[in-house]
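Below is just one:
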Amino acid sequence: MNSLPQWTAELTDTFVTGEDQLGVEGAAQGYQQWLIPGIITTTDRARYYSFYAWVLHRFINLPDSSRLLKDFRGSFYKRHEVALILGAFSHHKDREIIGGLVGSGINNFKVRRWWKADDPVSLDVDYFVNKLGGFGQYYLTAMQAMGIVGTNEHPTWVYPLTPRGEALAQAYQQSISQSTYAQKLA
């Protein structure tokens, strides 16, 4: 009898590209953060640190913000990340397919179809299984290790920014302040 673990059947009808079916990615990231805090190897988009700090800053500082994690990871967060993804795709729409973008996967093809349509693109599309998108999947642990995001005082509250995170969010806001996107948000 073989004492090694055995797969009895392939999970073909529940498999989604990009998911960590065995949970090894989370463990690997934990060890990696111990060895080299703040550095992640699952994505090459270092600029997302400032983007995610800015999204948290916007949510926390809205006049009517509940500051609850459940409200942050709803349409508020999703729309900001989808807008970033669409902006990156639009920059590459007449060039080669962009890779390594959070939530991109098959979205490369979806987005190219959207640009051929006359209708505006909704920011309410499903693009990522994780409710906290790329932030929850890749960046949260690294941002905590780097001192950009603090830990929750209460499990239902949104992640707080540290003074370093606040400075990063404000720098990002300044860098996009002249964009049409930022002006429409104001």
Q: What stands out?
A: The mean pLDDT is 78. The helical segments are 24-35, 48-61, 69-91, 107-116, 133-145, 163-176, 180-185. The CA atoms of residues 54 and 173 lie 7 Å apart. The radius of gyration is 18 Å.
